Amino acid sequence: LRGKFEEISIFRKNENLPIGKMDSCQAMSRVYPGAIYPHYGNQGRVERYVVDQLEIPGKAILIPSFYSENSTTFPIRETKLKIQVEVDSKVFLLGNGGKLILSYGWAKVTNRILGYRFKLNAQDPGTDKKYLKPVQSSFEAPFLKFKLNPAAKNSISLQVEKFIVPKIRTLLEETRDAEIREIMSRLLECEPAFVSVHTLIHQILKSLVPFLMSHEDVMECQLSIDDMSGFLVDAIDGGTGVCQTIFERFSEILEHVEEMSTCCQNCEEHGDLGGCPNCLYTKRCDVFNRALFVDLGATLLQLEQQVKEESPIPAQQ
User: How far apart are CA 34 and CA 28, in angstroms?
Assistant: First the structure.
């Protein structure tokens, strides 16, 4: 069940009747200032607008778009949370003393849009445009925290150096695609354990549809290289039920993640050894889908054995 939310009405500039409505969470992803907003007008014709203003709570004002049809925009976001209480946790053994700790609880979430990235077309790397004053909203919702312990970090680094790095170097030698070369080069510079956590979170998000859940109802946030952790949080004040369902059905969802990671037709057709937009990319990634590699996700972690540990002490309010 969805929680409470603030409604945003969408208006064309200088008109009094709204052409649409959405909740404030959707507005932060779809009608932030500068966003290209498509609207189905009369007879199903797509009309393209640019968001001129956004007021939360309240309204979004649109002006006609002067960009080409291939142009796109993406929000530059910063999502942070403050844990209010941890309700439960699960621990999964990874071998050599490594553990993945999955925690569930409630948090206060602050979502800030700092600006947006504009791309003329799919090949354009994009231009970042920052706001003078960020757009911000806050709410309380359930969260999931994924955290690797130091032993897991060391174990993953050894496995990556032995099995994954040679694969990436081979790909760099064989491909002439500049974008793929840039992605693979960045991966060699990333902390492997961080890439594992980040990839696992994306794989879980991409696997939710068969479980009658939408990845639009949950978002990732607060990725930490130092802490080897990352969060998922329900995207609406009061919660959507997605984080709780993932926590309760985690083993079942992992089985589906494993299936998806080995049978992506797009990866097979295009030779994308590290994963592709179909199986890894999400629209709400704070780091624009960087630091992802399919072989460092669920398959590498092999989260098969769950062990019981003492329940966590609730965090201070």
Answer: 12
Q: Is 159 helix (H, G, I), strand (E, B) or coil?
A: helix
Locate 109 and state its tokens: 């979430």
Instruction: Give every CB contact of residue 86 below 8 A, 6+ residues apart in sequence.
Output: 103, 104, 105, 312, 313, 314, 315
In eight-state DSSP terms, residue 254 is H
CB 141 within 8 A of CB 239: yes
How far apart are the C-alpha atoms of 130 and 108, rounded to whole Å? 25
At residue 49, the 3 state secondary structure works out as strand
User: 236 near 183, Cβ under 8 Å?
Assistant: no
Question: What DSSP assignment string belongs to 171-218?
Answer: HHHH---HHHHHHHHHHHHS-HHHHHHHHHHHHHHHT-GGGT--GGGE
pTM listed for this prediction:
0.80
Burial class for 307, CB neighbours closer than 10 Å (0-12, 13-18, 19+):
exposed
The dihedral over CA atoms of 170, 289, 292, 186, expressed in degrees to the nearest 10, equals: 50
Within 10 angstroms of residue 155's Cβ, the number of other Cβ atoms is: 21
Report helix, strand or coil for 6: coil
pLDDT (tens place) for every residue of the chain, 317 residues total:
444 567 899 999 999 999 999 888 788 888 999 999 998 877 778 889 999 999 887 899 999 998 988 999 999 988 889 999 999 999 988 878 889 999 999 999 998 999 999 999 888 888 999 999 999 888 899 999 999 999 999 988 888 888 778 877 877 777 777 766 776 777 777 888 888 899 999 999 888 876 656 667 888 888 888 888 999 999 888 888 999 999 999 888 888 887 776 666 666 655 555 666 667 777 777 777 778 888 778 877 776 445 544 444 444 44
β-partners of residue 90 are 102
Sequence-distant (6+) residues with CB within 8 A of 304 are 92
Q: Which residues 6+ apart lie within 8 Å of 182 measured at CB? A: none
H or E stretch at 299: helix 298-301
